Amino acid sequence: AWEPAWETTRRVFSYTNHTLMPEALETWPVALLQHVLPRHLEIVFRINAEFLALAAAARPHDADFLRRLSLVEENGERRVRMAHLSIVGSHRVNGVSALHSRLLVETIFADFAALWPERFTNVTNGVTPRRWLAQANPGLAALVDAALGGAAGRGWRLELAQLERLAPLADDAGFRRAFLAVKRANKERLAQHIRAATGIVVDPTSLFDVQVKRIHEYKRQLLNVLAVVARYQAMLADPDPMLAAWVPRTVIFAGKAASSYVAAKNVIRLIHDVGAVINEDARLHGRLKVVFVPNYGVSVAETIMPAADLSEQISTAGTEASGTGNMKLALNGALTIGTDDGANIEIRQRVGDDNIFIFGLSAAEVVAQRQAGHQPLHLYEGNARLRAVLDAVAGAQFTPAEPGRHRGLVDALLWGGDHYMLLADFDSYLAAQERVDALYRQPDAWAAKAIANVAAMGYFCSDRAIGEYARTIWGLQARA
Known about the structure:
Layout: H1 2-12, E1 15-16, E2 27-29, H2 30-36, H3 38-58, H4 63-69, E3 72-73, E4 79-81, H5 82-88, E5 93-95, H6 98-106, H7 110-115, E6 120-122, H8 129-135, H9 138-148, H10 173-198, E7 207-212, H11 221-237, E8 249-254, H12 262-278, E9 288-293, H13 298-304, E10 310-313, H14 325-331, E11 335-338, H15 344-351, E12 357-358, H16 363-372, H17 376-382, H18 384-394, H19 407-414, H20 422-440, H21 443-455, H22 462-473
Parallel strand pairs: 1-5, 5-6, 7-8, 7-10, 8-9, 10-11, 11-12
Antiparallel strand pairs: 2-4, 3-4
């Protein structure tokens, strides 16, 4: 019978949402489903009819409410809203960071949360220390084992909170030296990989500045590139030809773009073009390099993450669901530069404001600025440094054989509304990078903060996350 079958379905399924981007929430054409899955479509229509009847009883005479809740989008081409179906067909719905889960119930799923507030919860993501520390970074794993008590110190693999015992060692000069030695060995290994994969020679004593993730406009690899161009221009303007005041930096990108995502692919092309010019400019004395590591995946990540000094987590506030790269990098002793977004917020709360570089607008400030009428052209006209960077990207400096190749990226910022607030956050981001440079000039202080990050990562363990799913969503009890 329908009723017990539907109740069983609802009790079996739970829905974990992984995105706040409306365009990433799948919708399927009704016509396509009618053609290939006609019986399934009949079931969807019945589910929708019964659900809308329930919703109408909860809020009578509110047609707009029902239209927003419907499993079928009726404007234009009729499409089935798969996220809506997932909510209606599940007993629990969760986001994957505290901010993400709050924004789900305040924005894209607000109507469902009004109807079923008890159905929504949060389970912050986690990563496995067995792969991302024990396997990926055996040098650091061995150092942690020794610091926590040899064989007895291996327990962090199953109880990551034991890393808290490292916190006092941030003040131990000997441990800091050993920690930096492990990091240097990992950077030398990555430098070898970069040379083999790209032919680019990088300095393992330089600051390894890492942004590795899917290429997407909201993740703002373009903001990182603009900052690289600003640094390049400032270095060339320095009256000291040896650039002695500049911290050597290797900016490392990796990631893939969706096959049809033209803007993301253009950012990858820009990274290569900027790198090709900077890496060959003898005036820099090798103090700035730009690398795009190809074929990013788990194996490449296991080489990059242990070597990272700086973790770039710079998405527009309010767009990143959680992130796990931020956790993996911090677990391996990288300091985070980032916005108050996704799990960055929870990382900041655990490592402390002094051990992370936060910049930019908050999620609420992003909304407020958009509502007030964000005007990127005014920022361009009023900020000489920003204007010089955008003019260089749009012109021929990095594409002498094809001037204007990247004008489309710049025009999208200036005339397309700068939806992801790159220009609004530009100055704040550069100021945060200056704080990074200042700290990196003090190796002991840098090491102490990196150790503090490792020590605070216990919460961000996949074992904790799985336990929360078991207790709060699946309703399971641990066996003795």
